[in-house]
């Protein structure tokens, strides 16, 4: 206002306004100087509207208002003028003008005033003027001072006429006129609602599931809204208290089926939080007894009064906690044990320190029973879980299945603050104790557990102490697992039993297997339904006593038994004979029924391979060179001799080819498969730190044998071709026995040693030398045809077997192919077809 030109313009404006007002009222002069000072003071004020200076938004608002009021032409004119002024005016210079015009329009619509400026008063009357009652001097609170403007802008920065206090009194009087219920009564009812009790006015409405004032009670809308907001705390309290009463106030039989220790601890923690809430309500009840002051009342009224707004401030933090408890109650309904603790823990992941402190305090109470269960399990092997709340569950099983199936983890009961790895370690530690107690009948674990138990007492573990829990479990697991492995290896000699299975079931004891083949071979050639298992058991004992197996431990030898598998019509003893190993407790935990069935599968495969090798050995004994050279057919004429030598040559070539395959395949099985797998298993067995590691190493060992020995699921086609080769070799042995038996009979006749068995005319034994030569020629011709047929079938099956070997995924089978076809003979033959 330092600009003289601006002062002149303001002065001229004031004069015009006063002249227009006096002419409209028909005279009556006013103090021009006072009005001019008031205008200067108003224009010099630093007050600014509490809105953001957005010119375009304000212009759009004005256009929409004009269009909505049925003045589209004015809206278009305004838009045109605004665009022209925007081009010429400086940036941000149009917003004050638009705001002024919009304010004038709003005031005109609201108060039908000529402008937003007040009627400029003459000099303000003094506070002690006798012409009017000064504000605050005992007059009516709503009376105005003489000359006070009837409307306009209320000055906030400077209020010499106390206009703000006058407006406040008028507002208070209006509120009192509109209110049927006093604020003190509403405060009292809200406090009742916060305790879940219906008040005189504020009651619980089941239809809307909330506390509310009846529609018939006349209160301002803002008051009704505030009461509803405050009564939300009562609704939350009602939900929390209902959950507690539902879980605690039960009959003993219902509590046993519905509520567990974790739920009881949760309800106890909620009750403890509610006790602090009750204390706060008691303090607020005492404050509510003090009267609520009104504007302009005596300053002697106590400042510890409680209004609705003050109550909102007091209840802000309890409402947050109660809302959180209500959320927890909703999330935990229907849950128990570890699932409930996990659900509560999920709400603890919050960045607010108040939330974290509250949830930590609550979870320490809730998780206390759970941590006690963990401690009892890892140190005593006891499941103190009456209400099925623990994440480990036990089930009745046989001793051999105790480790694998006796105890399991319920994933839905595992809280998130216990990792799956830690849970598995907790499970294994308790299982080890029970395995030692039940299967091994050992009590040495108690010393190891007692040492670990001294590091922590009951109740020493709690929520937030995951490191302490993990340290306890790791130390207990290390000591108890070490003791368990000592018992398994030293007391029950686990490695010796594994070695015995390798020697006798996997046919690794060569002299025993060879002697067993020799003694049981004739017996197994009989039909299966004629064979006595007792006689075979005696032959087994004979084979043991005749080999180095007799020097093994007697306890191990007594476990080897003969087992006759189920047989059908036409089966021979070779098809149903097998050996089994009696693995007793606790070794049957490793050598389960399914595992022994897999060993039986390997034994049958190896037994057939040994039978084929044994058969080829028998063929070689039959067709030894010294037997052939001494044969009379070798000394006969050129024709029969050439025929005899040709047949023998075919037989020898086919034998060599079969022997090459069987020898190399047997080497692959016995060394590349069994010995290599055993060496790896032995190393893993020695380095195993717990029973799970030992079981894993054994399963890996057995699976490796099955896969490499073509007994896996992916090698069934190759195994069928292999068994076809075995059948052809056994067929060759059968034919060879029959052929050479006939040849030996002819040899005996040629030497004159054969005794005539019949005197019938035409008998081949009575036909003389010519008849013998004729019969020999027929025999050799038939032999040649049979040999060609067998060789053809063998070559086709071997070619199919070798062709499929490269398609197998196991790398060791490639070495088998290299050994079988190291000269690439079969590859060239296959490519020439």
UniProtKB/TrEMBL annotation:
The keyword Nucleotide-binding does not apply. It is found in: Cytoplasm, Cytoskeleton. Residues 187-489 form the Gamma tubulin complex component protein N-terminal domain. It comes from the Eukaryota. The keyword Cytoplasm applies. One of its GO terms (biological process) is mitotic cell cycle. Keywords: Cytoplasm, Cytoskeleton, Microtubule. Belongs to the TUBGCP family. This is Gamma-tubulin complex component. It comes from Miscanthus lutarioriparius.
